[in-house]
Design goal:
16 helices, 4-stranded antiparallel beta sheet, Methane Monooxygenase Hydroxylase, Chain G, domain 1, alpha/beta, globular, Flavocytochrome C3, Chain A, domain 1
Length: 583
């Protein structure tokens, strides 16, 4: 079945909905294709807030936010992207308010703001209240608001349609091919412009805050076409996931005064970040927690967790501003944050890398500025390099709305002046071959078994602390798993709602993301941001102030070709000194 739209958006999370909304406002026809119902997208799991220098609680300026973003990204952030972001996010938050987003409020009626890790006043002197929030359900409220606005503005939704191919001919994207989960039919969406916004790939790790659907689908598809993935070695582990489960415990819990404590009930962050303590950037807090655990000061049955202490906070804060987290702790751990310290541990949370784009969302084909005509990306799947080597808390929701909007505007502008590009005679042939190959394979390997090995070994070998030998071992493990994947059999050969088939396809996507990530991490012989190597412990700006571009070797499956892209600098050069992480 064939469809035609001026702009097709893949993904219906915050970035996809913002992109679709602004494309629709651009007087073009828009379809949003999502493997989930939009309001179930993973943006709904974002709890703590969206950072913007509104200054509702204390003095704040966009320049301070820009600096914190660059410093938090360990100076790998593209500074033009940081400037655009820090300026645009102020208007974007006010616009969300005007759309009806129910922000929490200060006493004077302005949008409530609280402290968050890594956000400071006066270029690092003290913590600042910058996170705008709707209790601890901010992402959920963004989804609801943007979905309603898209319905109002005429976006057409194709829900539970799983995109399995990008149609790129002669350097131009002409559409996508999607699989309808309800019928098993393939659909070709012919488009003048395509926007990719399908989220991250956290399911490559064993302990993750990511939903089961975050399997890096479009990153893998882009990579399979010989196009680059940028900075895949940088993956953020959120310091606080519920112990063993990985369910996110918002950074807002520390912004409201929560304290991390070890088995001795010591507030250990005073030793690692003496100025802002528990509100240091996420990479610092996560490594500090793991250090405490490694040195025997962990808590819980396996001594592999840390306490988060809220018992000193007022009931109205715990059950009001942190209602969702309180409910999760009570439900899943049987702990009451009003009187019990809650067990948390770092959880794989967010990909800083992904499909490279410029500041208007257009996808890049190489490290020299080449572009794919008609193809855009935004959100966690994309890498405009706002986050550099480590994303600040709240900047993910800001990224979604700022660069989702820019991608939507750019795609609509392009679509208004472009014709529909040429499609291949059978645009669905590659997808059909992929699915029929899995259905007909009588191999004995089980996708769940391969996925389990992948997740456990990635957690162990390419996790918070890394070293060359472990990562080299992981390169070989991934090659072995990809060989096993060739023998994967799918027991269910039915057409409708075939979960076995989808799991098998998504496993292939995860293996590609793990391959690109591990090769990029092995190659970068320094420590920077979330990439912490025990065998190269310092930041090396002389050799590594550059972005990694990982390409699949189309002539030798399993090999990764590495290229580079320069960091965009814009005046923040005084910090380019031997690595120092003092907060």
């Amino acid at each position: 079945m064939h469809h035609r739209y001026d702009v097709v958006v893949v993904g219906a999370g915050g970035a996809g909905l913002m992109a679709a909304l602004y494309a629709a406002k651009g007087n073009v026809s828009v379809a949003c294709v999502s493997k989930l119902y939009p309001t179930r997208s993973h943006t709904g799991a974002a709890q703590g807030g969206i950072g913007a220098s509104l200054g509702n609680v204390g003095e704040d300026h966009w320049e301070w936010h820009m600096f914190d973003t660059i410093k938090g990204g360990d100076y790998l952030t593209d500074q033009d992207a940081a400037e655009v972001f820090a300026k645009d996010i102020v208007d974007a938050v006010i616009e969300l308010e005007h759309m009806g987003l129910p922000f929490s409020r200060e006493a004077d009626g302005t949008i409530a703001q609280r402290k968050f890790g890594g956000h400071t006043r006066e270029f690092g002197k003290a913590a600042v209240e910058r996170a705008c929030y709707a209790k601890d359900r901010t992402g959920h409220m963004i989804l609801q608001t943007l979905y309603q606005q898209n319905v109002k503005n005429g976006t057409t939704f194709y829900n539970e349609f799983h995109v399995f191919d990008l149609l790129i001919e002669d350097g131009r994207c002409t559409g996508v091919v999607a699989y309808d989960l309800a019928t098993g039919e393939l659909h070709t969406f012919h488009a003048k412009a395509v926007i990719l916004a399908a989220g991250g790939y956290g399911r490559v790790f064993k302990i993750t805050s990511n939903a089961f659907t975050l399997t890096g689908d479009l990153m893998s598809i882009y990579y399979r076409k010989g196009l680059p993935l940028e900075d895949m070695e940088f993956y953020q582990f959120h310091p606080t996931g519920l112990s063993k489960l990985g369910i996110l415990v918002t950074e807002g819990i520390r912004g409201e005064g929560g304290i991390l404590r070890n088995v001795n009930e010591e507030r250990f962050m005073e030793r690692y970040a003496p100025t802002i303590k528990d509100l240091a950037p996420r990479d610092i807090v996560a490594r500090s927690m793991i250090t405490e655990i490694r040195e025997g000061r962990g808590v819980g049955p396996d001594k592999d967790a840390i306490y988060i202490d809220l018992t000193h906070l007022p009931r109205e804060t715990v059950e009001g501003k942190l209602a969702e987290i309180t409910d999760l702790a009570r439900t899943y751990l049987g702990l009451d944050p009003l009187k019990d310290m809650v067990l948390v541990q770092p959880t794989a949370h967010y990909a800083m890398g992904g499909i490279p784009t410029d500041i208007d969302g257009q996808c890049l084909s190489d490290g020299a500025g080449g572009k794919i005509e008609g193809l855009y990306a935004a959100g966690e799947q994309a890498c405009v390099s706002l986050h550099g080597a480590n994303r600040l808390g709240t900047n993910s929701l800001g990224d979604l709305v700022v660069f989702g909007r820019r991608a939507g505007i750019s795609a609509a502008k392009y679509a208004r002046q472009a014709d529909y590009g040429r499609l291949a005679e059978d645009p669905e042939a590659e997808t059909r071959a992929l699915l029929e190959g899995l259905r007909s394979n009588r191999g004995k390997d089980n996708p769940a078994d391969i996925r389990k090995v992948l997740q456990e070994t990635m957690m162990n070998n390419v996790g918070i602390f890394r070293n060359g030998p472990d990562m080299e071992k992981q390169v070989e493990i991934i090659k072995e798993l990809k060989e096993r994947y060739k023998n994967v059999g799918v027991a269910d050969v039915s057409a409708k709602f075939n979960g076995d088939l989808i799991d098998a396809v998504e496993l292939g996507f995860l293996l590609d993301c793990a391959e690109a990530m591990t090769a990029s991490a092995v190659n970068r012989t320094e420590s920077r941001g979330a990439h912490e190597r025990e065998d190269y412990t310092t930041r090396d700006d002389k050799n590594w102030l550059k972005h990694t571009m990982a390409y699949k070797d189309l002539n030798n499956d399993g090999n990764v070709l590495i290229g580079y892209k320069p960091v965009a600098l814009k005046g923040y050069t005084r910090a380019f000194e031997p690595k120092a992480r003092v907060y």
